[in-house]
Q: What sequence folds into this?
């Protein structure tokens, strides 16, 4: 009986019960230190990296960047979620990993950078003579061996191609409708009564909301983007949950438009520091597309460079700086890299269509030119902001 009990206990210890089911782990080496089993049991792996187009950035609520996508695939392979913690420089990444605040540095670290000799390099390796690849704590043997076994050199090129396809393909699957249902009568779409009903909730002209809807979905209630946005106003599942819109109603025209109006109302309150209502609407449109945090970063850059942070034309120009390392690494920027040209173009197209719906000439509110970047020494160190990706 003793032997049977011992065998049963040994068998049970070889499996870990997670929210995704049981995982066999008896093939992993034993260790008295923090192990891969701990990560699997906790259901989360914490990744450190720097912001940038090749590392990590938020795109319509979806994490992007080759380093992130690669690390996400590994996390999925062991059945855990991935949390991203952005650092301001390489020294912070190394310090936080040494202090046990994360599991892995998913960034091509320089080989001769101070402190790298205390790390264990594994997983993604670089062909460059100047970089070593990813790193874990030296005693985290299980994780290092699992990464080395999993990674193949072709994976990096594969995720880059996958990302390129996502960003360049038709991002919203939809049927294209005319921007006017009946130009002679002024009827924009068959959803005009819904725009007229709910746009006042955000204190918007219903025609502006209609112009936004056309930009989002071309008036197709069944539209769906690769990132998961759905319906007439392309609402993300997480935003829908926040707004109380159930997924079984997200493609229904009225609930979708009602939820979007509620979200626009929230964004109008978020940018209530912008006194001019027409200007504030531009900021809200930009936040709807690119995220309020990135808009605030662009406002901070505008203020730093002597522009008017409450004037969209100035902010749009400085938003373009968030595409470049000198911009998204600026001490006043908290949320990193942004595909700013898409957001600026988004606002511009909606404003142009809104002018069409009103029958007035269109005047561009943003210049496509990007200001010359000048590095300015900060007065004090930037406060680190944590990012979390679920």
A:
């Amino acid at each position: 009986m003793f032997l049977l009990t011992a065998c049963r206990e040994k068998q049970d210890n070889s499996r870990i019960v997670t929210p995704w089911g049981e995982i066999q782990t008896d093939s992993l080496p034993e260790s008295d230190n923090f192990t891969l089993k701990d990560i699997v049991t906790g259901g989360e792996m914490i990744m450190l990296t720097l912001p940038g187009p090749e590392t990590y950035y938020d795109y319509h609520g979806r994490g992007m960047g080759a380093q992130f996508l690669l690390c996400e695939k590994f996390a999925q392979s062991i059945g855990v979620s991935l949390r991203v913690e952005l650092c301001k420089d390489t020294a912070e990444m190394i310090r936080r990993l040494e202090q046990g605040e994360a599991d892995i540095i998913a960034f091509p670290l320089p080989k001769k950078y101070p402190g790298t000799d205390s790390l264990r390099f594994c997983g993604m390796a670089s062909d460059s003579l100047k970089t070593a690849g990813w790193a874990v704590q030296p005693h985290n043997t299980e994780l290092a061996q699992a990464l080395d076994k999993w990674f193949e050199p072709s994976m990096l090129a594969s995720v880059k191609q996958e990302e390129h396809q996502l960003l360049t393909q038709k991002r919203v699957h939809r049927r294209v409708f005319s921007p006017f249902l009946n130009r002679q009568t002024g009827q924009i779409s068959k959803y005009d009564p819904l725009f007229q009903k709910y746009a006042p909730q955000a204190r918007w002209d219903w025609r502006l909301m209609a112009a936004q809807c056309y930009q989002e979905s071309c008036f197709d209630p069944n539209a769906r983007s690769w990132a998961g946005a759905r319906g007439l106003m392309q609402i993300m599942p997480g935003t829908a949950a926040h707004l109380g819109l159930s997924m079984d109603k997200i493609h229904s025209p009225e609930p979708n438009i009602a939820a979007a109006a509620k979200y626009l109302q929230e964004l109008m309150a978020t940018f209530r520091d912008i006194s001019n209502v027409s200007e504030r609407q531009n900021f809200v449109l930009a936040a709807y597309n690119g995220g309020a945090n990135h808009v605030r970063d662009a406002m901070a850059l505008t203020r730093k460079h002597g522009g008017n942070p409450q004037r969209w034309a100035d902010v749009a120009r400085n938003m373009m700086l968030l595409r470049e390392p000198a911009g998204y690494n600026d001490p006043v920027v908290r949320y990193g890299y942004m595909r700013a040209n898409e957001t600026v173009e988004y606002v511009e197209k909606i404003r142009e269509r809104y002018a069409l719906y009103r029958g007035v000439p269109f005047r561009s509110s943003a210049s496509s030119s990007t200001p010359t970047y000048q590095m300015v020494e900060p007065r004090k160190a930037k406060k680190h902001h944590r990012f979390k990706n679920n």
Remarks:
- The two ends are 46 Å apart (CA to CA).
- Confidence is low (pLDDT under 50) at residues 4-12, 16-21, 25-33, 375-390.
